[in-house]
Amino acid sequence: MAKYKFILSGGGTGGHIYPAVAIANELKSRFPNAEFLFVGAKDKMEMQKVPKAGYPIIGLWIAGLQRKLTLQNVLFPIKLIDSLWKSRKIIKQFKPDVVIGTGGFASGPLLQMANMLNIPTVIQEQNSFPGITNKLLSKKANTICVAYENLERFFPKEKMILTGNPVRQDIIHIESKREEAIEYFDLVANKKTVLVLGGSLGARRVNQLIEKELDRILSQNVQIIWQCGKLYFEEYKKYISVDVQVLPFIDRMDLVYAAADTIISRAGASSVSELCIVGKPVIFIPSPNVAEDHQTKNAKSIVDKKGAIMLKESELDSQFSLVLESLLKDKGKQDQLSENTKQLALPNATKQIVDEIVKLIN
Questions:
Q1: Using CA atoms, how far apart are residues 14 and 46, in angstroms rounded to an integer?
Q2: Pairing state between β 282-284 and 262-265
Q3: b/e for 144-179, b at 16 or more Cβ within 10 A?
């Protein structure tokens, strides 16, 4: 059996790292003797997360362009040239069969160099509005695996495959885990649970909102699991009570999804894909502080199919309480959102993406 070699690059956020690791795991299950190498950006979270997942990683000296004139921007051309040379050296030494990019700074120079050296490349685009790196790389890429429809205006249509985003496999059948979840989080079984998700680092505006509206939310006779993020835990742990759990992060996402009745969440690509599979009523609060406002576009793709509710940050003070209270009281609306969002789920994304990679090596 041929011994295949794969280089994967994705980083900067969990939304880029997790899909890359999921793809590597699926490749490993099909080709147990394959060799893997990850390429990330020095000083970014992938340099810790990827070795924890059991894979070697090399860091490039690369960062994104800032929106204003900074020393980082002055250094950008030097960093880019350095990263291209290092990428060339990595590819020449490792000799991969395929190079896979899931987004993040390092994937740009790596896939660009792979294209120049005629190594097959696959892009996995998580968002409904691609970043500039993937738009540029798409011209030479062999295959582009996308999570949303209607991306023809960004990518060559003939290269695109609608696969969805890789998700944690343990969230696919959560219906059977509700009892375990209630025990794990020490919840009252017959009380509705509102889950607040601000991402792994936390979301300042979401935390401020929950702090301001906490008493009003609790007046609806619910219990709250509030994942405030590790940056904010010290500030918000004072709100821990019988009905409020404040957590820096959540290890068992499968169980917290199983426990939740209603979810308030940011709209990062991985979160949106997971929440479609989970199929619970969701209020999305997109972060406005991301490139191309892509979280709003991610959420809108679900809202347009009547699968979720979206509130922009500018609408929170005037509308949040009314929208949440109305949702909590309206069982028909909850069921409709759940049913519609499940229709949009693509639970087999990782397998489909790997099927496309395998086509390039056969």
A1: 8
A2: parallel
A3: bbbbbeebeebbeeebbeebbbbbeeebeebeebee
pLDDT at 100: 98
CA distance 52 to 183: 28
Burial (CB < 10 A; 0-12, 13-18, 19+), residue 10, is buried
Distances from the Cα of 277 to the Cαs of 155, 273, 340, 341, 343, in angstroms? 26, 7, 11, 8, 9
Of 126-140, 185-199, 295-309, least confident by mean pLDDT is: 126-140
pLDDT band at 295 (very low <50, low <70, confident <90, very high): very high
pLDDT tens-place string over residues 37-48: 999 988 888 889
Q: What are phi and psi of 318, to 5 degrees?
A: -90, -25
β-sheet with 160-162: strand ranges across: 57-60, 35-41, 5-9, 98-101, 121-125, 143-146, 160-162
Confidence of residue 126 (pLDDT cuts 50, 70, 90): very high
Q: Is pLDDT of 113 > 60?
A: yes
Report the DSSP pairing between strands 222-227 and 244-247.
parallel
Whole-model pTM above 0.90?
Answer: no
User: Which burial class, exposed, middle or buried, applies to 50 when counting CB atoms under 10 A from its CB (0-12, 13-18, 19+)?
Assistant: buried
